[in-house]
């Protein structure tokens, strides 16, 4: 059961890093290119809807287990360390009070899924005719 606690601790740390990146995005000392990457990563990580739904076997958890952590690690390397430490402290305080969600990213993912489903229906319809 110790391995479960270990993974829960990693999940909490990952959540803290996402919120810290959100605060770093708002910081004027972070370069524009880092802000662009952070915006994409944080938007997707806090989105209530996944690009690959979790109910799809194996593929559903790839974004949660691989893509998001790699994106976070990359974004962290682009942010000055003193800014990152300050943002991590803010994130810890924030997570005690609230739980963040990004509905804008959720809507964008819904639009992507709608476009994919529409495209599949169109191809299927043309194939049947």
Give keywords:
129 residues, mainly alpha, 77% helix, 0% strand
Give a description of the structure.
The chain has 129 residues and is mostly helical. The protein has one domain. Helix content is 77%, strand content 0%. The protein has helices at residues 2-26, 32-45, 62-78, 81-97, 103-128. Helix 1 packs across helix 2 (32-45), helix 1 (2-26) crosses helix 3 and helix 1 (2-26) packs across helix 4. The termini are far apart.
Would you kindly provide a brief summary of this structure?
By secondary structure, this protein is mainly α.
The Cα radius of gyration reads 18 Å
Please report the distance between the alpha carbons of the first and last residues: 57 Å
The residue ranges in which pLDDT falls below 50 over 5 or more consecutive positions are none
Number of helices: 5
Based on helices, strands and strand pairing, what is the structural class?
mainly alpha
User: Strand-and-helix sequence, N→C?
Assistant: HHHHH
In total, the number of domains comes to: 1
Shape: globular
Q: State the total count of DSSP E strands.
A: 0
Q: DSSP strand (E) fraction? A: under 5%
Arithmetic mean of pLDDT? 82
Instruction: Summarize the main sheet.
Output: none
Share of helix among residues? over 70%
């Amino acid at each position: 059961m110790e391995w479960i606690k270990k993974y829960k601790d990693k999940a909490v740390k990952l959540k803290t890093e996402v919120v810290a990146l959100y605060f770093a995005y708002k910081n004027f000392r972070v370069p524009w290119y880092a802000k662009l990457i952070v915006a994409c990563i944080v938007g997707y990580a806090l989105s209530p809807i996944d690009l690959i739904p979790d109910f799809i076997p194996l593929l559903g958890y790839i974004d949660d287990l691989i893509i998001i952590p790699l994106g976070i690690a990359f974004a962290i390397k682009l942010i000055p360390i003193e800014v990152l430490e300050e943002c991590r402290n803010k994130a810890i305080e924030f997570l005690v009070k609230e739980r963040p969600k990004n509905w804008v990213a959720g809507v964008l993912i819904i639009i992507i899924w709608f476009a994919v489903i529409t495209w599949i229906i169109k191809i299927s319809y043309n194939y049947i005719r």
